[in-house]
Amino acid sequence: MSGWDQYITNLTSQGITHAGIFGADGSRWAASPNFPSIDNLKDELPKAFSLQPSGIVVDREKYIYIRNDGTFAVFRKGADGMAIVKLNQAYIVSIGINQKPEILVGKTNKIGEYLKSCGY
Fold first, then answer.
1. SUPFAM superfamilies annotated for this entry (predicted)?
2. Closest to 45 (Cα-Cα) out of 92, 3, 2
3. 12, part of any domain
4. Which of 46, 89, 90, 92 is nearest to 70 (CA)?
5. Structural domain contains residue 49
6. Whole-prediction pTM
7. Structural contact between residues 30 and 2, judged by C-beta atoms closer than 8 angstroms
8. I need a labelling partner for 22 at 20 to 30 A (CA). Which of 6, 40, 48, 78 fits?
9. Quick one: pLDDT at residue 1?
10. In a domain, 115, yes or no
């Protein structure tokens, strides 16, 4: 178990279905079991924070862009939500089945702020 796993466990213990931490290069630092695949992860995560993101494909299902504020981006697919928090060197991705993305942002951003304060 790596040191990053504790952050994933923290998120999933709060009811988040899937959580992952990925380096800016697309490398997987840690992820919950059965974390769904994100097409072209290395390219998609930075695009979530572009001026005109179109959405992100997760397990061949497109999550539609809702909003971003430069530090987090919010997506939705039906009743499911996704939040991506941008760190200095990585991204935290939280996916919630039947969860509003705004709830995911609050939980994910809390850990993101801590990791940013540690230089990540």
1. Profilin (actin-binding protein) (SSF55770)
2. 92
3. yes
4. 46
5. yes
6. 0.93
7. yes
8. 78
9. 47
10. no
Amino acid type, 16: I
Residue 50 lies in a domain: yes
The total number of structural domains that make up the chain: 1
The tokens describing 57, both together, are 């494909």
Kindly report the number of other CB atoms within 10 A of residue 27's CB atom. 11
Mean pLDDT calculated for residue range 6-26: 95
Tokens of 1: 């178990």
The bridge status of strand 72-77 relative to strand 18-23 is unpaired
Average pLDDT over residues 30-34: 95
pLDDT for the residue 102 = 85
Distance (Å) of CA 55 to CA 27, 63, 68, 73: 20, 5, 12, 10
Show the tokens assigned to 31.
């992820």
Structure tokens at 106: 């609050």
